[in-house]
Write a structure and sequence with these properties.
Number of helices of chain B: 1
Structural class of chain B: alpha+beta
Shape of chain A: globular
Structural class of chain A: mainly alpha
Number of strands of chain B: 5
Order of helices and strands of chain A: HEEHHHHHHHH
Strand content of chain A: under 5%
Largest interface: A-B, 38 and 45 residues
Number of domains of chain B: 1
Largest sheet of chain B: 5 strands, antiparallel
Number of strands of chain A: 2
Strand content of chain B: over 45%
Number of helices of chain A: 9
Order of helices and strands of chain B: EEEEEH
Oligomer: heterodimer
Helix content of chain B: 10-25%
Distance between the termini of chain B: 23 Å
């Protein structure tokens, strides 16, 4: 576990989430085993499940004594990077994945650890693009409702979405997404220093309860 | 080529990688033969003498089953 690096998160994060959703959503079916002759690379197959189990361990570690601080933070940073990396101005869902990831972090990783929590809050509250996006999409939807031209709709969607995100970054005083991300990392470091105070940590934990009540 | 246990689930064929019982619940680990990174975990339940596969009910249960797999296979390595 201690040797599990950022690269491993990148490699196994998507299989982990996809596998969970498949495991969660599947329907009940009769368990009818068949025997077939096949050539299977069992090492490769087992490695896939073992790799993803490392991420499960990172999630589960929050409730154990041997909580792995470094791994949890690596996971969160990766989650953030993935959200930006997969940002696609044409696909509405990619943006909403970003806010979803913050909620996931809060639920699965950070709920008992103040320093991780603050990271989650930072994602949820500082990245308040969602609210701005909602307003823009409401306006966009009005235009789409009045249009029958699909190409035009996609063009409008692209322009609004991309432009609004760029505007958000600029409004925050940054010229690029990378610059924005670096600034966020610095802020998180500052938060971490603040969190060394036990009193503040307890306050944040109280905030966690109130946040959950609002959901 | 060797004998391999398979099942059909959601109209897709899966290889059975392992079965692990945790607290009297048996989990089965399934991998798609032809898809590089697709696998899932299901539970085996018994109803009227017929075995069924059913879904994992939470992320915590899913993590627990994954960790059991890791503990089993890394301790044997």
């Amino acid at each position: 576990m201690n040797n599990f690096e950022m690269d491993d998160f990148q490699k196994y994060h998507v299989p982990y989430e996809n596998s969970y959703m498949r495991s969660y959503r599947s329907q009940k079916e009769p368990y009818n085993v068949q025997i077939k002759k096949k050539h299977v690379d069992w090492r490769k197959v087992t490695a896939l499940i073992l790799g993803t189990s490392m991420i499960a361990t990172a999630f589960a570690s929050r409730i154990k004594d041997n909580y792995d601080h470094t791994t949890a933070h690596a996971y969160i940073k990766q989650h953030m990077n993935t959200s930006f990396k997969h940002y696609d101005p044409i696909d509405n869902n990619t943006y909403y994945d970003m806010s979803k990831c913050a909620r996931d972090i809060l639920n699965y990783v950070g709920s008992k650890k103040p320093d991780v929590l603050i990271y989650s809050y930072y994602l949820v509250f500082d990245i308040d693009v969602e609210r701005q996006m909602d307003a823009l999409f409401t306006e966009l939807q009005k235009q789409i409702d009045n249009s029958t031209d699909n190409e035009h709709i996609m063009a409008m969607k692209h322009n609004y979405y991309y432009a609004s995100f760029q505007e958000y970054i600029k409004a925050k005083g940054y010229s690029t997404i990378d610059e924005y991300k670096k600034a966020m990392d610095q802020k998180v470091l500052a938060y971490k220093e603040m969190m060394e105070s036990k009193e503040v940590a307890e306050e944040i934990l109280e905030m966690d309860d109130s946040w959950e009540m609002r959901q | 080529m060797s004998d391999v246990k398979c099942i059909t689930l959601n109209n897709q064929e899966y290889l059975i990688v392992d079965e692990i019982t945790i607290n009297n619940v048996t989990y089965i680990y399934l991998v798609r033969e032809d898809v590089e990174d697709e696998f899932l975990i299901q539970k085996i339940i018994l109803e009227q003498d017929q075995e069924y596969l059913t879904n994992i009910s939470s992320i915590e249960e899913y993590n627990k089953a994954l960790i059991a797999f890791k503990e089993k296979h890394t301790s044997n390595a």
